[in-house]
Description:
Structural class: alpha/beta
Number of strands: 9
Helix content: 25-40%
Distance between the termini: 28 Å
Number of domains: 1
Order of helices and strands: EHHEHEHEEHEHEHEHHE
CATH class: Alpha Beta
CATH superfamily: Vaccinia Virus protein VP39
Low-confidence stretches: none
Largest sheet: 7 strands, mixed
Strand content: 15-25%
Amino acid sequence: xxxxxxxxxxxxxxxxxxxxxxxxxxxxxxxxxxxxxxxxxxxxxxxxxxxxxxxxxxxxxxxxxxxxxxxxxxxxxxxxxxxxxxxxxxxxxxxxxxxxxxxxxxxxxxxxxxxxxxxxxxxxxxxxxxxxxxxxxxxxxxxxxxxxxxxxxxxxxxxxxxxxxxxxxxxxxxxxxxxxxxxxxxxxxxxxxxxxxxxxxxxxxxxxxxxxxxxxxxxxxxxxxxxxxxxxxxxxxxxxxxxxxxxx
Length: 248
C-alpha cells in the first residue's frame, strides 16, 4: 500500500512478538470503546437475528456481546489469551476462539457479518487480514472495518500542532493512511467498499455512556463537531464492504 505512515516499536516485530506485548497490555489495562460506539457500528450492518457475526481481533468482547444481545450468533477471535479471559466473563453467550487475524480458524464463507474495528492497522501483514475478511464472508454478507486517518483534523493534525509529533498509541505496530489508500488495501484483499463513514457519530445510547462523555471532554467535542468535518478529515474511517463481485 502506498503512502502509509508506519510506527514500529521494534524493527524486528513479528506477530508472535506483538502477541506477547498485547498480553502485557491487557494485563494492565483494557482497550475498548463505550457500548454506544459498538451499537452504532452494528446498526450500520443492519443485522438480522439468527445470523452469524464474527468480530476479528475482538479484544475483551464488547462488540460480539452486544451482537449476541441483538439475537445474532456472535463469535469473537483474538490472539490475546488475557483479552479472551475477560471476554469469557463478560460475554458468556459469545463463541470465542484464539486465532491470528491473518490466518483464521474458520472455513470459507462462514459468516453473514464481520466486524474488524481498529485492529487491521496493527497487523504485521494488513493485506492478509483483509483477505481473511473476504474469504470468510458469505455471499450477500457485509463487513464493517474501521481504520485510522493520517489526516484526522481533530486527531493526528491537532496532535502534531500541539506537540510536533505524530500520535503514537503505544501499540507494537501502528499505521495511518488516507481514505482512498485504505480503500485500495481492502480492494486488493478482495473486498468492495460500498460506503465510507466518519466514526465520531456514536451518540450516547445510555445514561452511563452520556456520563462517560461528560467526564471525557475531548471525545465529547469530537462527537459534537463531527457532522461539520469533511469525511477526508475524519479521525477514522468506517468502511462498509462486501466481497468483490458480490452483487447481492
